[in-house]
Amino acid sequence: MRTFTILIANGPNLGHIGRRQPEIYGERSISELSDLIRDMLGSERAARIELEFFQANGEGQLIDRLEEAMRQGVDGIVLNAGAYTHTSLALADCLAWIGIPCVEVHLSNILARTDEPLRHKSLIGRSCIGVIAGFGLHSYALGICALWQRFMDTAKSTAKE
After folding, report:
1. Cβ density class 58-97: b for 16+ within 10 Å, e for less
2. Where are the alpha helices (DSSP H) in the chain?
3. What pLDDT score was predicted for residue 84?
4. What residue ranges define each of the domains in the chain, with the CATH number in brackets?
5. Rounded to a whole number, what is the distance in angstroms from the first to the last CA of the chain?
6. Are 85 and 124 in contact (CB under 8 A)?
7. Which pTM does this prediction carry?
């Protein structure tokens, strides 16, 4: 059975998930993600997913890693671009051309952040297959589940051809 590689890419200020502003972002750490995936997908399916983790505070570093993922043949990306979600045309352009299915995720519900209306707009969402927000660490696990389903649907349609 084929294994699928998914890059979990986090942007600025996301190196401290579970500790930074837990009232907004939750208390669970990224290290708990593997257990969540196993719970949601089941052990057999989860064993077919290889996760690679990356976090960068710099926009250029994040873009460099996404381009590297393309060269490596990564199957999917779950991306929490942090504040770059709302400001980075360069990141949106990169996602548009690398051709890797990407799910944009956010720990908090960016549309409910009434104190910061700038966070209501995503520049990168148009280059992603979907957006998941507001479920804390489960947003990442749901993104991985969505990519898994995409991989399975693609495999079925390829087998029919």
Report:
1. ebeebbebbeebeeeebbbbbbbbbebbbbbeebbebbee
2. 22-25, 33-41, 43-46, 59-72, 84-87, 89-98, 138-160
3. 94
4. 4-160 (3.40.50.9100)
5. 20
6. yes
7. 0.89
For 124, phi then psi, to 5°, come to: -90, -20
Residue linked to tokens 């770059």: 84
- Residue 122 CA to chain centroid, in angstroms? 14
**Catalytic residue numbers, as ranges:** 25, 106
The mean pLDDT value for 2-18 works out to: 88
Other beta carbons within 10 Å of 102: 25
The angle, 0 to 180 degrees and rounded to 10, between the axes of the packed helices 138-160 and 33-41 is: 50
pLDDT at 70 over 70: yes
Paired strand residues for 133: 106
CB 10 within 8 A of CB 55: yes
